[in-house]
Amino acid sequence: MPGRNHLFVPGPTNIPDAILNAMHVPMEDHRRPDFPELIKPLLEDLKKIFRTEAGQCFIFPATGTAGWEIALTNTLSPGDKVLAYRFGQFSHLWIDLARRIGLEVECVEVPWGQGVPLDRLEQRLEADSAHEIKALLICHNETATGVTSDLAGVRRALDAAKHPALFLVDGVSSVASLDFRLDEWGIDVGLAGSQKGFMLPAGLALLAFSPKALAARHRAKCRRGFLDIQDHIAQNADGYFPYTPSIPLLYGLRKAIDLLLEEGLEQVYARHARLAEGVRRAVAAWGLKLCAQEPKWYSDTVSAILVPEGFDARDVMHCAYHRYHLSLGAGLGELAGKVFRIGHLGDLNELMLASAITGTEMALRDCGIPVTPGSGIAAAAEYWRETAPPLAPRR
Ligand SMILES: *Cc1c(COP(=O)(O)O)cnc(C)c1O
């Protein structure tokens, strides 16, 4: 098939050529004497992405799902009560995993399309004067619904109630794309995966632990073997890993962090916000609605778009893929068939995203969904033009 496939699922994301090239390396000995020259700065610089100075980062050869388990088993004991909110497929799966490893989950159901209800959270924490809740499990950016929750608000609720619960955050589709501040927001564990904002293949679970979360491992009785941070703590100190790391992924991560820091994290966040707003303008121009119910929940990394009653979002995706070589994200769990998703995170610019908007528009029309031809892409393009950075003078 001539031309390239247009990848707009919210992970894996597009990999910049600079990272692809950086990963194209011959294998080497991971116990060589100068290996720490790669690993020690890598672990230090990863802290900058999680925005922590006090904490410690870990790199596991795994995915975001393992990150959930690493966060839980290294800080908690079987039977511990944890409080979690279910508002999409990813928050759902984390809750399911927590139950499977023997935690007692108090699960609060929230309509899919909303995020963490801060008023209810604060009330619940106030009521827990015996401090039975040992941890909060918060999915920062619910990738299934395109909803971002207010982590600073969660921290304020914890502080207002003077509650000592650990604050555990799934940042798989937010870290390195959305504003995320481990130290400032008092997050105890932040976890991410390599294939989203980090612009890498899947294969690394990336975590940051606060000093409080690190200390919790001494009391935490959850069974852990491969996923025990203790083995990493022992080996990372000298710049090694307790088992064979994926060398290409480590070189890729080095390059990804360099690219993110070169652009500047604030700039990375602003780019995501601006690109996302273009997508939202297109959705509005089509006369369609986001799954996210209010602007305060809108995610700058993924938009879940509802198809009108009587249509199946799977037809839109099928058409987009087979006719226009455009991969859109599927509706997950109870949203199957009701939404399709446009991922807008990672290595992206205006015209890359324009291909997704144009292809979506074509597929919508092909499926009989009445959108005005050119309306979505015009709205996005005008927004991006109006908000474009000033031009340097022509030489
Ligand atoms: C993608 C994703 C996960 C799962 O990560 P895997 O790498 O597929 O295990 C977890 N949480 C969120 C919010 C995600 O977007």
UniProtKB/TrEMBL annotation:
Entry EC number(s): 2.6.1.45
SUPFAM superfamilies with a match to the protein in the record: PLP-dependent transferases
UniProt KW Transferase keyword: yes
What cofactor is this protein dependent on?
A: pyridoxal 5'-phosphate
Q: Which residues form a coiled coil?
A: none
Query: Which keywords appear in this protein's UniProt record, sorted alphabetically?
Result: Aminotransferase, Pyridoxal phosphate, Transferase
List each copy of the Aminotransferase class V domain by range: 42-317
Instruction: Decide whether keyword Transcription is in the record.
Output: no
GO molecular function (one): L-serine-glyoxylate transaminase activity
Q: What Pfam families does UniProt report for this protein, alphabetically?
A: Aminotran_5
Q: Where is the signal peptide?
A: none
Q: Which PANTHER family match?
A: ALANINE--GLYOXYLATE AMINOTRANSFERASE 1, AMINOTRANSFERASE CLASS V
Which family is it part of?
Belongs to the class-V pyridoxal-phosphate-dependent aminotransferase family.
Q: What is this protein called?
A: Serine--glyoxylate aminotransferase
Question: What organism does the record attribute this protein to?
Answer: Candidatus Methylocalor cossyra
